[in-house]
Amino acid sequence: ATVIYQEARGDTKDSQLGVAHTVINRTRSGRYSLEICDIVTKSKQYAIRARVADTVSYSAAENLARRVILGATEDPTKGATHFVKCGRKTSWSKQLLVRLGNHCFYKPKN
Known about the structure:
The structure is a single chain. This protein is of the alpha+beta class. Helix content is 41%, strand content 15%. A 3-stranded antiparallel β-sheet has the order 1-3-2. Strand 2 (94-100) and strand 3 form a beta hairpin.
């Protein structure tokens, strides 16, 4: 929930859903830990340390995270494991899969 809140609060619901699915997709990729907590707390991966100021938005993020973890949502990212705000330069090379709201979703180039 904190990843959704910190990374996509104020963006579209599809973008928030996409951010959540990047975490789940990493657990399934074989390249990352199988544990959600390990993935979201890995240094320089996701923003999770800032203070929660908007409890209504955080509650919505909790509900969305719960649905994603339970498998009650479709993955709108086409299997993405990474995202950035569209237009932001990155130092890593990935294949663009989809744009949702203000976020562009990627997977590693094979």
